[in-house]
């Protein structure tokens, strides 16, 4: 079966807009596959009876994937009311060329299977069994969103008795906690003979104008790297990047139409900041996950991540900044510029801001460094043996009192292939 990497795709919000075309979807498939992603898990909050738009979009995506070819696969992840129509989901997609299959059986997943009703969850697992699919759902354990320890991981494995595996959505948690949950789940599910699909997440921050306005600090790419390493060292079967395009919770890695910010799908999401560096930096870990060995670094590259304003501005977590209020968070959101580097040999990185400069002497390999966040445009200079390898300015300035970034991360990169 082999290691596979997928991305969680919100069918409700295609990057190409409400009327996304086959060509729009193909462009997304290409962006994903170029980074090593094997397919999309199609999150559907409804289906034909409840919200027929979902079924119509999914079938268009399957047509697009067939036209795209190249082995890019799709499978439905039933959410909400879509779980009432598992039979039609299977009937509609099972025979399509782009459908992901394991041992000849169509793969189907789910998010929050059965909601908070364990009996409903069990009944849906039994229904999936009767439909003959390869079922890898996510369901909420008895402890809810809390970190999954050994006993809870064994509970999950037991509840998977009639399913083929389990998908851990993660996302809403601190990276170290999510990584420990992956380790515990991987051990228990392997002991039970079940497939395990772990998750990795770039960053999570709900919409300021919604009911889920909370954030989980990831320290630039550092948190995502921690989750990748947990999946790698736990020998997880599959990984799902959570998410490709959840514009509402800022977990998206999909490239947008700008290297700074853009409005995507609906103005209610605000101006979305570029997250492409999370996707590009993940390419190294995707290769490692699939091959079982850390890839050789053949080119110097670096990726930077920062918020567009100094977060603290002398005030604590959850405080208000004029008319703007910080998201709920268990930890203080960082006031730093974060840089992740992939180096072919020892080098020096200087991070300049205003009249200050932070210098880091770094070894070959992967490194993560920080500098205090200050108003102005961050400047990055990479040198080796007295010669300049790269000079780059951040595409967005850090501002003193502009909160239009809404505590989201902005990301950018230096890659010699893009110069």
Automatic annotation (TrEMBL):
Gene3D superfamilies in the cross-refs: Glycosidases (3.20.20.80)
Pfam families attached to this UniProt entry: Glyco_hydro_71 (PF03659)
Listed name of the protein: Glycoside hydrolase family 71
User: What species is given as this protein's source?
Assistant: Paraburkholderia terrae
